[in-house]
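FW: tagging you since you asked about this chain on Friday. Here's the raw sequence from the shared folder, copied in full. Didn't touch anything.
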Amino acid sequence: MKDNFSTQASSYARFRPGYPPQLFDFLFGLCKNFECAWDCATGNGQIAGMLAERFRQVEATDISEKQLQQAVQKKNIRYRIEAAESPSFPDAAFDLITVGQSAHWFHFEKFYPEVRRVLKPGGVLALVGYNLLQIDEPTDAVIKRLYSNVLGEYWDAERRHVDQAYTTIPFPFPETALPEMAMTCEWTFDHLSGYLDTWSALQHYIKKNGRSPLDEAIMAELRSAWPEGVSKTVRFPLFGRISG
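HL: got it, structure written out here
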């Protein structure tokens, strides 16, 4: 699994959106027991923190020590530096396994056998993610141009799975459809700018070119579409592959 987010771990924790309660209500409704959950590729523990509200124990793993240093801390969450494909957990340990905006990086032929090993009979696997943000027509036009035209060649090949809402990844389990839902936030322009800095393709661009692609022209276009001091509603459509 690639580590594309250690460099911007603090920004990731500060600017990435949080998943809505509606998602967890849906997942918890599928669970038969609430003894132990595994949040795989937890990042800064956004999902782990929500799971800890319901599960007796939450195990959360990631390959990035810097991400885990930014993670949500609760007494019933235990963090470990481990790859998704080689967890150290015992057999039949979990009632729920979650993966948020990370499954597209996995080696599926190694990950899924481990899921089958550590998931309890009747347990739930949830691979969830979110699409490109939606704000309003003028702002969206600039962001889409940045995403596709400026950064297009800098996205890792695995990003195509996100663009296709995970319909292109293998999922060898009986499946339950995820209801339509979205993450919704109220952001200032500075929050948008901070969020864009967390994009892995933007970091790849900086490493190759020695400068940010958020040059004066792009920032001027974004500021023109987003007046100073104005908050806007930002929407991230969710998608997922859910066993059940």
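FW: The radius of gyration is 18 Å.
HL: agreed, and The longest strand covers residues 119-130.
FW: great, closing this out.
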